[in-house]
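Table S2 (text version). Query chain:
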Amino acid sequence: MEASREEILKALEQVIDPELKRSVVELDMVRDVRIDGGDVTVGIALTVAGCPLRSSFEEQVAKALAPVDGVPKRAARWLTRAPAKSNSPSSPSRVLRGQIPGSR
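Corresponding structure-token output:
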């Protein structure tokens, strides 16, 4: 049985932004959750390309998703936010793809 989007988001509540000390779910950094036959890809928005905290997020995501039933393979898409234009929300400007450490 594959995991649900809700189970993935619940697990990702454990992923804490080291600078802001709040969950990536609470901070609305999780932009995408894709589930395909048990393979899970999450899109997490980072504030800058080359974010020095990316490895911390990778480790936390791997640890958070490891115990979730029905998730044999995990991957992350790292999105960076473009500078906000006046009166419009910021949008992802670049996608960085990577396999999460410990993924099967």
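Notes on Table S2: The first strand starts at residue 16 and ends at 17. The domain at 5-83+91-99 is CATH 3.30.300.130 (GMP Synthetase; Chain A, domain 3).
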